[in-house]
């Protein structure tokens, strides 16, 4: 893999809101410290993301000592929200899974509801070690996750983004590119690999921390949302549909589960510890896609990773 290294780290304290990019982060079993421990829910308890509310891209959450957050958004005075006392929980739903969470005070819900113009509540996952297991079809015993779509971390590579932007430039919506990495809302961004090298990763080490690669990441409409304006386009889904289709899912990035504790730092070396046994794909070393028909591809040798989960 050459001289691959960790280029950037991204933490999103509130699911779907803008986060921050520290130089280092502690890795907990359920993800980076403070990442997606908070979420918005609607009146039915369902978690709200940029899928339903693209304007969340313009709101930001700053992580405070002790786990609280400072919320900010255009036209709104900032609001500091403390971690709520675990005096009771509410039932939330994320991708059909029921999860217990602790509601923040009413002021936080009012602030968010007034910004979005619809009724929502802010909730906090108080105990990620027990509240929500990783999908058992792709988990080892005891693995858990916060309010991320399905897995503790998401990793992407700069080389694959460059390749994707080249595909966008050749398509019918070339004017929308090149796209920045924040469209994909990753936790870890790796530089120094070949394009699509991550397709063949099974286990990697980032500095001192070892991660299991659980499955490829399916992408949704959130990736078409400009994170600076909240406006939506057609890319990258058009290009992914032509070149990065796995069954009914369009893939970019890999979902990770930590296998050891530690701290990751910008500049850390990234090493491949294991790779599945599979033939190289048409994109060269590291690719695991097979062309089945013009404009259609499927993923070969997925190692039983099955359906793909998105990320927001």
Please tag this protein with its features:
312 residues, eight-stranded mixed sheet, globular
Taking Cα atoms only, what radius of gyration do you get, to the nearest Å? 19 Å
N-end to C-end Cα span: 28 Å
Q: List the helices and strands in order.
A: EEEEEEEEEEHEEHEEEHEEEEEE
Total count of strands: 21
Beta percentage is 25-35%
Overall residue-averaged pLDDT value: 90
Shape: globular
Put simply, the count of helices is 3
Give the helix/strand class: mainly beta
Give a written overview of the molecule:
The chain is mainly beta and 312 residues long. The protein has helices at 106-116, 158-169, 237-243; strands at 5-9, 24-28, 31-32, 38-41, 47-48, 60-63, 69-73, 76-81, 90-94, 97-103, 121-124, 153-157, 188-191, 203-206, 209-218, 245-246, 249-258, 262-265, 270-274, 289-293, 296-299. It is built from three helices and 21 strands. Strands 1, 12, 13, 14, 15, 16, 17 and 19 form an eight-stranded mixed beta sheet that branches. It has a five-stranded antiparallel beta sheet with strand order 5-4-11-10-9. The radius of gyration is 19 Å and the shape is globular.
